[in-house]
Specification:
Layout lengths: L14 H12 L1 H4 L4 H13 L8 E5 L5 H9 L4 E6 L2 H7 L7 E4 L12 E7 L8 H11 E12 L5 H10 L11 H9 L4 E14 L2 H10 L16 H11 L8 E13 L2
Helix pairs in contact: 1-5, 7-10
Length: about 270
């Protein structure tokens, strides 16, 4: 970390923030090997950024292993880059690989950055973990320079509905992460003080040979169930078999589908 780094134990942080940070830190070494969705979504977000954009400084918010920090560095060769993530394990993994000038541990809801510091904030599949998205937007508005752009990709309700419905048929407990409604993103972005250049939802469907392959990938990504109310302890064999049976009804010719409802938004500071 650089001297810009802040502690992960931030005032008023939600308890689950620490669980999110710890989970993604543990997944740092395995993340890139199973990150097909993350690559695809991030590339689609990059394609939505304005062609004329040429920031003097960019921020990769929720930078993870630094994959897109390195792409941003290649795209904006004369810009200074900041990679910010709540998971210090991710930052330790990313820093030797380069891309950004600064690697900062911090929270998207309370960024440890000065006002009007960045011309671009890029955030792919990170802000769905933030309970207070209005605070994320307020911080983006504060950190952006006038004319700066906040491009983000997130997940909304309908994500992993096949897994959710299959578990519901087994025991009715919370096994799948909850996500915001599409309408919440629209409402909060409209009220943020940032101009909404675009906001749309697109489904991404991945296919797996079996349920174990899907749940293994979610764990390798650090994105397995982190919700309050999730079942504790080991999941019994009978329930696992019930899950497998319930999920089989979704099977397609390509395999078992896992649907991600992805929100893409590009906002601009007046």
């Amino acid at each position: 970390m650089t001297d810009l780094s802040h502690s992960l134990t931030l005032p008023g942080a939600l308890p689950d923030k620490r669980q999110v940070a710890a989970s993604f830190s543990r997944a740092a070494s395995s993340y890139d090997s199973v990150a097909e969705l993350q690559r695809d979504v991030g590339n689609q977000l990059l394609a939505r950024l304005p062609d004329s954009l040429n920031p003097s400084r960019w921020l990769d918010l929720g930078s993870g292993t630094g994959h897109f920090s390195r792409i941003l560095a290649e795209r904006f060769t004369r810009s200074e880059g900041i990679a910010l993530d709540i998971a210090e394990g991710m930052l330790r993994h990313a820093q030797p690989l380069g891309g950004a000038e600064y690697f900062v541990a911090g929270d998207a809801e309370r960024m440890p950055l000065a006002d009007q510091r960045c011309g671009l904030i890029f955030s792919s599949l990170a802000v769905q973990w933030c309970a207070d998205f209005a605070a994320v937007l307020s911080e983006a508005q504060r950190v952006l320079q006038p004319g700066g752009v906040f491009g983000f990709a997130s997940l909304c309700v309908g994500t992993l509905y096949e897994l959710r419905e299959s578990w519901q048929a087994v025991d009715g407990m919370v096994h799948v992460n909850r996500f915001r409604q599409r309408e919440d993103y629209q409402r909060l972005c409209a009220a943020s003080g940032l101009r909404v250049r675009s906001l749309e939802v697109q489904p991404h469907v991945l296919h797996y040979p079996d349920v174990r392959s899907l749940t293994h990938e979610l764990k390798a990504l650090g994105a397995h169930n982190l919700n309050p109310g999730r079942p504790g302890g080991l999941t019994g064999r009978a329930r696992i078999m019930g899950l497998i049976d319930a999920y089989e009804r979704f099977r397609q010719s390509e395999g078992l589908p896992a649907t991600y409802q992805v929100v893409y938004a590009v906002l601009e500071k007046p």
